[in-house]
Design goal:
Helix 1 packs across helix 9 and helix 3 packs across helix 9. The longest helix has about 35 residues. The protein is globular and about 55 Å long. Strand 6 and strand 7 form a beta hairpin. The N terminus is likely disordered. By secondary structure, it is mainly alpha-helical. The strands form four sheets. The protein has a two-stranded antiparallel sheet with strand order 1-3. It has a two-stranded antiparallel ribbon with strand order 2-5. Helix content is about 50%, strand content about 10%.
Length: about 325
Amino acid sequence: MHAQTWPAVRGEIRPSPSRIAWLALALITGPLLAVRFVTPGAIAIWMIITAVTLCAGHSVGLHRGLIHGALKMGKTTERVLIYLAAQTGMGGPLTMMGMHDLRDRWQNQNKCPEYYGYGHGATKDAWWYMCCEHVPQPDDLRPQVDPKFATDAFQIHIDRHWRAHVVATALPLYALGGVPWIVWGVAMRVTTAILGHWLVNYLAHTRGDQPWVIEGAGEHGRNYKWLGALSMGEGWHNNHHAFPRSAQLGIEKYQLDPGWMLIRLLQRAGLVWDVYDAKRAGPRKEAHSGQAASSAAGAPTTAPAGAATVARKQVY
């Protein structure tokens, strides 16, 4: 396996007041009040909304669909799934696309800055991931988002006002189930998504099996079997690094992938098409060239040296 190198992070890592305030609000109105307002209906609505927004919205619509282009969908389906993704409370779609782009490009380089890698402990990673932002150096990589999404009025609106849309769900939930449904259906849902997303990403890069090696990459991901199904399939992360274009993350028969199951249902209903499974996508053959790249705004950026070129199965 390629030896990982973790240089000092480029640019500045600084606390984000908006992230800290949002997380604090979710924690104060969620876990601290959950026991006081627990009811069977509130727990049920929490489980249902959390599963739908994380699976259909974040995993299928945003991650596999828009970010990796592993499937195609009509504009109405796209907007419904993106709205569900925003309802996780983790961020706006365009912002998350940009963050994912930077993380992917750095992790597929020979030398990955510490902020985008996992050569540090869980405490530091949690602080950075949930409460901080990375301000790159002037000549550093800039996030690239597909112009067809970056110029879409609906996506721009949701990216700017996603917090308001999350909070607005409190009104129908209150009408249906009172305060318990707000506590569990909004605050606990957001808390679960934020903490869960960080935990899955951390464990899926630091624990578990690594059957695939991506030559030339600083990060390979891992398959963490205890999180495979609970994370809607995102826990099969070594597979994802090896098959980034695949909408199917659980590629072995025993690797339960709820997101892939949903995609198959949507495909049968005619709502998505041109779906890439692992066989069609194939393991990665090339990644970033390591040469100069251009940002979405057209400003030149310097890509780091080294490139991820081939994903191959390890021989134990």
